[in-house]
């Protein structure tokens, strides 16, 4: 698809999220009346005549959000997503035992430096631009990578006090189960966003679940089942890594630096999906 065509029809996620919208619809209703806040107690913080942009994975925004007209920072979401993607990609290759590699030491270097520190910084910058979801997710997963690296680094002796391998596997299972629950909470916040944004958290949640179950199986002595579950977790992790890169590319690429940009896959029940159906119905009845 040529870049000139993209300007003629705003059918890409980047263009729609960065486009200009007005505070009134065709019937003259205000933006506040257009958007259904569902009894949200924070209605006063989100309401008003300002325009809203649809959910966009490249901005790490799962719902309608205000355009940032005078941003002092660049968009930090692609940085955080890229840090998460690369670290997850390498560890997941180890988990699926790619090329016979089963020791995750190389992933620990990324967990400290890129997936940990850099992603944590991206989360702080998301907080600076007012993106609560992005700040919570990126900062938390940055903390996950740092804590995971600490747990597996021999010098910290985080697991050495446990008397046997079964208990060490159990506490790692507890650790991963907690992240499965946290990711599921974030997953619920993406149900009205884009398909690729939702799938990122869906596959990541399954990866945490598989890896947690692998540790529990190991603690029970079921080594064969543990190996299969670890490989399944690695498979879901690889998919999550590519989805994170997909959303990162959506936040970076536009018609000024790329010959193509990421297409939109909004859920039918999202705000953008309802708008598309309304336009289609108007054309059919015209």
From TrEMBL:
Residues 1-11 have a biased composition (Polar residues). Keywords: Membrane, Transmembrane, Transmembrane helix. The keyword Transmembrane helix applies. Pfam families: Gpr1_Fun34_YaaH. It is a multi-pass membrane protein. GO terms for cellular component: plasma membrane. Residues 17-30 have a biased composition (Low complexity). GO terms for molecular function: acetate transmembrane transporter activity. The keyword Transmembrane helix applies. The chain crosses the membrane at residues 73-94, 106-125, 132-151, 171-189, 196-217, 229-249. InterPro entries: AceTr (IPR051633), Gpr1/Fun34/SatP-like (IPR000791), GPR1_FUN34_YAAH (IPR047622). Residues 1-30 are annotated as: Disordered. It is found in: Membrane. Belongs to the acetate uptake transporter (AceTr) (TC 2.A.96) family. This is Gpr fun34 family protein. It comes from Daldinia eschscholtzii.
């Amino acid at each position: 698809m040529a870049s000139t065509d993209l300007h003629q029809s705003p059918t890409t996620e980047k263009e729609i999220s960065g486009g200009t919208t007005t505070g009134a619809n065709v019937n003259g209703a205000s933006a506040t009346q257009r958007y259904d806040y569902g009894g949200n107690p924070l209605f006063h913080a989100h309401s008003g005549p300002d325009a809203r942009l649809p959910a966009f994975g490249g901005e790490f925004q799962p719902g309608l959000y205000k355009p940032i007209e005078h941003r002092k920072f660049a968009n930090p979401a692609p940085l955080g997503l890229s840090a998460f993607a690369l670290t997850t990609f390498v560890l997941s290759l180890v988990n699926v035992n790619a090329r016979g590699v089963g020791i995750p030491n190389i992933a620990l270097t990324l967990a400290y430096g890129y997936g940990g520190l850099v992603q944590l910084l991206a989360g702080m910058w998301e907080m600076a631009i007012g993106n609560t979801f992005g700040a919570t997710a990126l900062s938390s997963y940055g903390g996950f990578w740092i804590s995971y690296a600490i747990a597996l680094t021999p010098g910290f002796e985080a697991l050495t006090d446990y008397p046997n391998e079964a208990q060490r596997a159990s506490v790692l299972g507890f650790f991963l189960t907690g992240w499965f629950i946290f990711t599921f909470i974030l997953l619920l916040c993406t149900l009205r966003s884009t398909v690729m944004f939702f799938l990122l958290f869906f596959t990541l949640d399954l990866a945490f679940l598989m890896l947690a179950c692998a540790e529990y199986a190991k603690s029970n002595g079921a080594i064969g089942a543990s190996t299969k579950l670890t490989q399944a977790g690695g498979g879901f992790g690889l998919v999550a890594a590519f989805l994170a890169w997909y959303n990162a590319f959506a936040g970076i690429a536009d018609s000024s630096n790329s010959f193509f940009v990421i297409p939109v896959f909004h859920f039918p029940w999202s705000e953008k999906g309802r708008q598309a159906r309304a336009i289609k119905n108007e054309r059919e009845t015209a």
